[in-house]
Amino acid sequence: MTSRSHVPSPSFLRSLMIQARVVRALLMREIITRFGRHNIGFAWLFAEPMLFTIGIMLLWTLLKESAGAHHISIIAFALTGYSTILAWRNTIGRCTMAIEPNQTLLFHRNVRVIDLFIARIILELSGATLSMIILVFGLSSLSIIDPPHNIFDMIIGWGMIAWYAAGMALLIGGLTEFSEVVDRLWHPIAYFQLPISGAFAMNDWLPEKFRNIVLLFPLPNCVDLFRYGYFGDAVKPHYDLGYVAVLNLLITWGGLAVVAAAAKRVGNK
Predict the structure, then answer these.
(1) What is the pTM of this model?
(2) Using CB atoms within 10 A as the burial measure, which of 174, 211, 235, 269 is most buried?
(3) 32-58 residue pLDDT tens
(4) Residue 56 domain-assigned (yes or no)
(5) Residue-wise burial string across 150-159, b where 16 or more C-beta atoms lie within 10 A, e elsewhere
(6) Could you give the 3-state DSSP secondary structure of residue 41?
(7) Contact, 92 vs 190, CB < 8 A?
């Protein structure tokens, strides 16, 4: 008897294509709702985070923050730091209270609660990623900053940040369906994360005891790898990808479970 590899059934593939079209439609709706059809429209998706990042780069350059003392470019340090903040903070923030204003869309048979989150996650991460890529390669082509040392490490670091952001977006966004208090609590929690996110200092610059505590959180590990990909041996990174992958997996699993529970709650209303 010969063994045959499993081939997905046509019904599964068809369902997948339908959901892909649903997410695409939700993406277009979100873009038009937020940015409109006129002026530069869709370009605001990455132009907006670019403007914020440029502002932070100018501010840090004027203040001559700690990066200069460690003989690395302040502009590049600000760019590789603030871009990561925009990726996770905007993604999670846009998914809070995402269900309630879009409940009328759920009357369409093919629109599910998780589709609302997927569309917003893709939109925010795409905007932050495009902004970062344009600024890194734009400024390096103008010789304002050096080109990246190892793009592969940058991609892995950025991918882990995006994974964390997506998982937390599902978790926090799903919980806000059960209580608005979660939405109110998330904002101070997000601000608490800023100083330990790795965006403002390399982990190696921290006192060892404090660094060991900071590295218990996923973000500083991811940001250090991302920056190591850019600066290379000019910096000494501290990260544990295996540990972060396990944490991200648990966060994502929890997020999917909460979104599933939120979908049932919406369906029972």
Answers:
(1) 0.87
(2) 174
(3) 887 776 666 666 677 777 777 888 777
(4) yes
(5) eeebbebbbe
(6) helix
(7) yes
